[in-house]
Structures are given as C-alpha cells and as structure tokens.
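Exam revision sheet. Question 4 asks you to relate a sequence to its structure. Input first:
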Amino acid sequence: MIATSDTRIKRLTHTGMDPLLPCAQRMDPLLEKAHALIQQAGFLSVRYPAGSLPGLRDLLRAMNSYYSHQLENQHAPPLEIEQALQQNFSASADKSRRQRLALAHMATESQMQALWPQWSPQTIWSAQMVRDIHQDLFARLPEADRIDPKTRQILQPGAWRSRAGQGRNPAPTARQIGVHLAQWAQGYGHVRRGELQVVAMAAAHHRLNWIQPFPDGNGRVARLHTHLVLGHLGLTNGLWSPLRGFARTREAYGAHLAAADAPRSKARDGRGPLSEQALVQWIDYALGQCLEQVQFITQLLDGEGMKDRIAACLAYEQQVVKQGVRSEALRALHYLFATQAELDRADFKALLGLGDRLATAQITALLQRGLLQTDSPYGRVRLGVPQHALRFYFPKLWPEAEGGAG
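Answer key, structure tokens:
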C-alpha cells in the first residue's frame, strides 16, 4: 500500500508558492500514478541499463531538443539538426541559429546525464543547479544568438531576470526570485524518495516556471531540470523523457501550466495563494505524460518485432538506396540490438557470413549509412540509429523525422 502522507508535507506550507504539494486528502490518486510510473520505468531500466543502446540515446537527445524548442516555436527541423551535427549549417541566419540552439540543448542534456549519478539530491534541488543549467545551455551560443529581437537586449547565461516577468498571472518580482528559489529548493529537495518525490518532480516543474527566474529560457530550463530529476531517480536511463509528451499535447501542456498559475478560486481550493485544484490537475497531467512515454518506448524496444523491422530497413537500403548495404547484415545488427553489445570487427564480420573482402565493404557501407557506429577507424562497432532508419526501427517515435528516410 502506498503511503498517502508524509511528515515533510507539513513543512512545505506557509510559503509564497503555497501549496508546494497538494494536501494529503488529494494525494492518493497522484501517489498511485507515481507508483505505476516507478514500476514500469523500473522494468525498462533493468532491461536496458545505463550505457546500453548508445545510438538510440544519441537520437533521443536530438528528439528531446526538437520537442523542447518546438514548445517555444524555436525548433529546427530534424533534418537540419542532423546536418548541424555534421557541422553543416544553413546559410539562413535564423535557421542556423535554431540549429545551434538544438545542439546546445543536446550538449547540456548529455552533460547532465554524465554527471547526474554523482550529484546529491541537495545538488539537484538547488538554485545553483537551476542557474547552472541556464548557464550551460546559453553559454554554448554566440552572443548574436542571444539577442532578444524585441528588446535587443543580450541574454546573459545564468543571470537572474531584473525586470517584471511575463504571463497571464503575475510572477514574483525580480527581488523575490532568490527567496522563492530557496523555498523551491528546500521544499522539493527534502521530500522523501519514492512516489512522493515523483509527485514533487511534477509540482516543481510548474513552480519553477511560475517563478520565471530568467528573462528568457525558463521553459527550457524547467524541462531540462525535470529530465534531470527523473534521471537522477533512476527512472529514465536516458531512454525516455516527458518532453516528447509535453510537445505532442502542447495545448494541454500550456493550459495546465497557465491554470496552475492562477490564485486560489474558492475556500476549498487549498490554503495557499495559488490554486491547489489546478496544481493537482497539472501533476496528474504530467505524470500521465510520463507514463505514456515509458509505455510507448517499452513497446518499441520489445525484441519480438525488432528483427523484422531491421530486415525491412535493410531491404529498403538494398533495393532503394543502393549504397552498399546488404540484407546479410540482419543477423549481425539484430545481435547488436539484442545483446546491447559492442563487437570487435572480426566478430562482426563472422556474424555477417561473408568473405573478408565483402564483409569489410559491408562494415564500411553500414558505417556510412549510420547503421553502425564506431569511435575509431579500426575500433569496435555498435548499433547506430540514424534518422533515416527511424520509420523502420522505431515507427512513430519521432514522426517529424521519418520523412528523412533515403
């Protein structure tokens, strides 16, 4: 049975962001949903531990960047993101700026994933972490990319805002940012791990957006922080993120965030200045999106159908693309997926069942098409997941990128 209350909840009252968490009477359905998320995410993490399927993780970072920037209407198309990864930037100033935004987001996410195992909860839940995410993200951009087109002011990485916030309901004043972030860090950072911490993750996403600590980039920082918390709790291993769900339900995402900004509407709407009912609805929505993403990626990674999907990709490569990829690569590629392994080139050649010359040519073709990855000209090989293979390997994962096949 899931606990429905915690002594720490009482310590979160009487702050400028009340309620930080819903009262115990409204917590049961949220804790049940958080419990389901922990169970399903745990199964996925056991099957695909940290470090497995690196090619898929690389692609997911690009997808996360795309969807987070799509919510800001600042996204580059998937093909242009892939071109930017190859240092091929558009001649258009606006398009190349969006490409650099995408790469910066991916690099910051990668940095967080590398470091989150060694960070303490106090580090994760700190105003300094919020500032560091903003600093890391925007310091990767040249100054020209950080100029606000309306005010012509330059966004300074990691600098708190000094003017009024934006939004339908008033955000805290610039002078109140430090106090509110301290309350945010203290309140959510000391919630016990488990179901309540997952609920706190969802609530904190809204409250950080509500504070608006920066003049720009608040939504992206909040989403990266949510991704960080879920990863630090051991729930994602880099294989899923609610960012995809938030963007694919964009209207609901924005509506729930805006509603939770609203002041308390009636006597039974909590005891703080903000609406408790709207906060509950936001948390329920956010946890629902997390559950949907876990379930979706779990189904896609089901090994039963993966061999057929790899075969379909190879058939397309051989019959349509005609750049040297052969259907004989099926057994070797499926082995890499099923075992999540890296192989010496000699072992990969043996699985191909081709003569040495043809096997060498096949490895070259697979590498050129991104279906294999390696870290050096003669190094071990692992499964690659290029955008053009998405519609075969993981259909509907990133539909906007599937048009890049070929």
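Marking note for examiners. The chain has 18 helices and two strands.
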